Amino acid sequence: MPLLHSMVHRLDPTLDGERLTLTTAPAEADSTEPVMESLVSALNDTYNTKPKGWGRFAEEGENAGPLSVWLRDYLADEQSFAELSGALAERLAKQLQEQLSVSGYLVISHQRQGDTDTLLMALVHQREGIGINDTHQAVPAAQLNTRQLTLAARVNLTQWQSDAPDAQYVSFLKDRGGKKLAEGLAQLLGMEEGVDAPTETRTLLKAFSDYVEKEDFDDEASREKTDNLVDYANDQLRRGEPMTLEALSELVDEQQPKAFYEHIRQADYGLAPEIPPDKRTLNQFRRFTGRAGGVSISFDSHLLGSSIEYDAAQDRLIIKQVPKQLKDQLTRDS
């Protein structure tokens, strides 16, 4: 992951805790230093696993902000990275002091991975640790906590410049406990939120379950296709990139690479062509399947304990909400 530019600023609350003071970096960090590249790489890894909001820059109205203008000037070489970074840090400091007092280091970086350029902004907190000095004595050693982020955002610059109509190229951390902070960050970015990652991921998994049921795959094929979907989603999650329905369709059914994609379109699930994967939703997804004596059962694991119960003592599976199609057949034949 080549690091093109990076700067680290310092945010400190005043003694009364009512406002933030910003200490800007005197110069860019040396992006060729392996330690700096490792820091940004670690922040990306943590960011990829966190719940996020997704969207795009607001073109006009009250949500529009100056970031898109600053980025255009920067990419056109009309503004330096130091100027862009400093302007972002100042605006963030003003935005944050209306929400809460925090302290830490604000890392802003421009990085390239393959053909994709991204701008990352992350507030990293410092924690006290223990190190060993030259005389082999234990001494206090401050460390950056790269595994715990409360504020971070990333702009896919390449996707933004492509101007694709459905692209969700801006993302930001959206943890349950930091609603006000997330709202302030979205306002800072000047974005309008679009795709809801958890909802979209749940809808995709529902579409997949319907497809597997419709095609009546055997147990082995069903498990294989489920594994393909989850592996692809987790791989995109680690890369920090969205899932694409066409690529997923090819993985789900290699014999009919467009079948799953057509199933989604014909059934009108309302899914966007690209879906940011949601880790929590994926972790809850697994299919239970079984077939014996003329009975075939298949259901998603998240239904167990709610609409489906298993009584281990009596070896019974209790279905509380019978599918409408099955209910109609049972009613008709009773």
UniProtKB/TrEMBL annotation:
Superkingdom per UniProt: Bacteria
Chief localization: cytoplasm
Gene Ontology MF, one: single-stranded RNA binding
Protein name: Nucleoid-associated protein
Subcellular compartments: Cytoplasm, Nucleoid
Record flagged with keyword Acetylation: no
Organism listed in the record: Vreelandella arcis
GO cellular component assignments: bacterial nucleoid
Family to which the UniProt record says this protein belongs: Belongs to the YejK family.
